[in-house]
Amino acid sequence: MHTKPRIILSLFLFCFSLSLLAQDQKVFFVSPNGSDANFGISESPFLTIDKAKSTIKSLKEEGAKDAFSIILKEGTYFLEAPLVFGPEESGTIDSPYLIKAEKSGKVRISGGKEINVNWKKYRGSIWVAKVPKGMEFSTLSIEGNPQIRARYPDFQEGVFPYGGYAEDALSTERIKSWKDPEGGYIHALHKGRWGGMHYRITGKNPDGTLSFEGGWQNNRESEMHQSMRFVENIFEELDSPGEWFLDEKKSLLYYYPVEGMNISSISTIEVSVLENLITLKGSVKNPVQHIQIDGIIFSETVPTFMKTEERLMRSDWTIYRQGAILMDGTEDCSVSNSEFRHLGGNGIFISNYNRKAKISGNLIEYIGGSAISFVGNPDAVRSPSFNYHEFVEASEMDTIPGPKSPDYPSGSLVFDNLIHDIGLIEKQVAGVQIQMAMDLRIAHNSIYNVPRAGINIGDGAWGGHIIEYNDVFNTVMETGDHGAFNSWGRDRFWHPNRGIMDSLAAVHPDWIRLDAIKTTIIRNNRFQCDHGWDIDLDDGSSNYEIYNNLCLSGGLKLREGFYRTVYNNVLINNGFHPHVWFKENHDVFTRNIVMTPHKAIRVDYWGDKVDQNFFTTEIDLEKSQEFGIEASGISGNPEFITPESGDFRVESTSAALKMGFVNFEMNEFGVESQKLKQLASQPSIPQLLLEDQDQNDQVFNWRGYQIKNVATLGEQSAAGLNEASGVLILKVPEEIEDQGIQVGDVILECWGEKVRNVIDLQKIEKANIWRGRIELKVWRNQGMVEVEI
After folding, report:
1. Quick one: pLDDT band at residue 733, thresholds 50, 70, 90?
2. Residue among 588, 553, 546, 587 at smallest CA distance from 569
3. How would you class 407 by CB atoms within 10 Å of its CB: exposed for 0-12, middle for 13-18, buried for 19 or more?
4. How many alpha carbons fall within 13 Å on the CB side of residue 56?
5. Residue 223, class by beta-carbon neighbours within 10 Å (0-12 exposed, 13-18 middle, 19+ buried)?
6. What is the C-alpha separation between 355 and 406, in angstroms, rounded?
7. CA dist 785 → 409, 695, 740, 779 (Å)
8. Which DSSP category does 242 fall into?
9. Which of 33, 161, 452, 748 has its CA 20 to 30 A from that of 481?
10. Assigned CATH topology for domain 693-788
């Protein structure tokens, strides 16, 4: 047969087979050991995932309109390259394109690669193995367990930040011990503890110090923190079980086995090589549509902390637009019932134009970056500024409200996701991050064990979000001056110079809502932050309605901003923190239950209404009334129903109801699906700090100290006090003796406020915990002594 007829026949048979597939097969089964030569039907050998994808793409290009599915059989899929879906692979509303695990939780897509190793004893407890020449990797797993890259100080579980830190990590003596530190990394908190920063070591300087590059991971420039830092990927620091080091130049892997491991039996290890696993890539004019990803485990992506450098609209953030799943230019696409675990960077990143994305039913845990991010295109913002200190002159301001283009996420849902233990590497992260987006609904998510905010909104562009029924706790665990929920509003109207800002707000009050065009609603959530505020609306955050939230620890802060209405919230053991308010700000704070006096800082103008709130002590109410507010406020016992179990509704006889407070449900926070409920943790319910005369003889544990109220004449006389008031130190543990408090001291003031008893001390401490330290005045040897913890 001649060549030309043979080619024609082959093309005919290929097209005929495609036609049969289009008619008879809409579901393609794939497996980790599939073959491109197979048909991928359920009863026969399976396809590879790449072949199934390319076949469906060809069928769609031929005009097929079917609802195609790729069903992944059980096992681990090691990708050679990310799976990228373009607009030509879109499904339709009636015929979506499904990528689904046959058995949920049994299919893993990995950004890693398995390599075979032959271990040999190196010296002491350290073993060595040859790896393929030219191979580079920064994560390593053995039998599914991530190992620790050689570091100083050694990793310590439960120590914050970073699992251990040391001021001498960059000491001259330590650097001198490193033969060749090039390729190592420095990880440090921002000087103000506003997130973290990372640096790549490039070598040694002649004076014995290190040369390095980086630090661009935070949009508020800073030196690195002087003590909260550590170094990694330096051979000489390989001295602890579970640590490893790769000598890239010699292609040698060194490892210190964990106790009990038979290293000679470990012949296969997994290392990360990809930073992205699935990308849906379209555009405003030609989006990817109706692709659904369901039931898959995503793991082992490469850390991307050195690529986190894109500045975000005067927020404190820089970002890298990447994740295990990247959605960029999509409509009606979803990620559901999947797991994201052991990722080096972000989980799901929704970038630029996206409409009606749905992220639901997922478990996201133990990852290096943020869990779910929505970040629009800065080109959609009018008169954008990027650094905190930047601004657009008033004479050059674009004063058209709203976005300039549709290139941003909108109309999307984040529902029923369990997110915990994120930000293992990067510290400026969130469970849900929102910037340059509109009309998102964030509902019924459980978010905890995070280094910074659980939910963060980086600007006011363009509002309309509904944040409801979330359970957000154990937040701001490694940083400071932040909240379980945090927002900034440094929009185009905002100016870093307060004097100029005051004049702009007076002359152009309509500019305030040029970007925050829609009201963001925060309702029916449970928030807890022991190192900041439960709800923190920071610089310029405007146009919010906040109600029916249970705040367990940090209270609620409204820094400079406009049009915030806050009502019917319960603030346990804390209260209201108004900071540096503008004139004519139109803020409202009313019908809330608070347990401390209002903690005003530089507030000369009190908005439209700060009144009719319920205080748990008369003293707290009186202190608040000294500001000329709360004329209709009342105080008393709120009569919570069962506070020990977290039900802070009030009894029908409570005076709070007469004041206007309305009970709301307190058992609907967090994830909804039964599977995730069984996995989710719950916050610790705090003991109420209510006045109780029966506590005078009780001994309390406070920050390791044993303390009690000064209650008797004998205690007053022994201390030489004028009255039986204050908190007596009974015992100081050895490990904190250097903090300056001594046995027999009596705490009389905390942060300049009088301390009458243990309840006072705890409430004042709670109200000021965001400062990161405690300032006390104690009575010692007939005189007042200042102490800082």
Report:
1. confident
2. 546
3. buried
4. 32
5. exposed
6. 10
7. 55, 26, 10, 6
8. T
9. 748
10. Pdz3 Domain (2.30.42)
- The SS3 call for residue 315 is coil
CB 168 within 8 A of CB 203: no
User: Which one, of 643, 487, 633, 430, lies nearest residue 552 by Cα?
Assistant: 643
For residue 691, what are the CA distances in angstroms to 552, 553, 616?
18, 17, 8
Spatial CA neighbour of 61 closest among 11, 18, 10, 7:
18
Is the confidence at residue 757, as pLDDT, over 60? yes
Rounded Cα distance between 486 and 506, Å, is 26
Q: Which two tokens stand for residue 468?
A: 């409801």
Cα→Cα distances 165→44, 189, 199, 558, 686, Å: 55, 10, 15, 33, 29
**Distance set, CA 762 to CA 193, 496, 786 (Å):** 24, 35, 18
HEC readout, 354-388: EECCEEECCEEEEECCCCEEEECCHHHCCCCCCCC
pLDDT band at 23 (very low <50, low <70, confident <90, very high): very low
Entry field: residues in the chain: 789
Coil, strand or helix: which one is 277?
coil
Q: Where are the alpha helices (DSSP H) in 691-733?
A: 713-719
CATH class of the domain comprising 281-392+407-659: mainly beta
* Rounded distance between C-alpha atoms, residue 26 and residue 199, angstroms: 49
Residue 517 sits at φ, ψ, to 5 deg, of -75, -20
pTM of the model: 0.93
**Residue 429, amino acid:** V
Q: Per-residue pLDDT averaged across 328-342, rounded?
A: 98
Residue-range domain boundaries for the chain: 3-106, 112-272, 281-392+407-659, 693-788
Neighbours of 636 (CB within 10 A): 15
Write out the two tokens for 544: 């919010």
Q: Where are the alpha helices (DSSP H) in 581-706?
A: 618-625, 655-659, 674-679
Element (H, E) at 536: strand 533-537
DSSP classification of residue 46: P
The identity of residue 206, as a single letter, is: P
User: Is there a contact between 528 and 472 (Cβ–Cβ < 8 Å)?
Assistant: yes
What is the distance between the alpha carbons of residues 26 and 94, in angstroms, rounded to a whole number? 14
| Beta strand 775-780 pairing with 27-30 | unpaired
pLDDT digit string, tens, across residues 240-255? 999 999 999 999 999 9
d(CA 642, CA 650): 9
Question: 280: closest CA among 143, 493, 535, 82?
Answer: 82
Structure confidence by residue, pLDDT tens digits, 483-496: 999 999 999 999 99
DSSP code per residue over 452-477: S-SEEE---SSB--EEES-EEES-SS
641-675 per-position pLDDT tens digit: 999 999 999 999 999 999 999 999 999 999 999 99
Q: How far apart are CA 624 and CA 594, in angstroms?
A: 11
Tokens (6 digits) for 451: 């280094």
Name the one residue in this structure whose structure tokens are 């890298």.
320
- Residues 449, 421 contacting (CB under 8 angstroms): yes
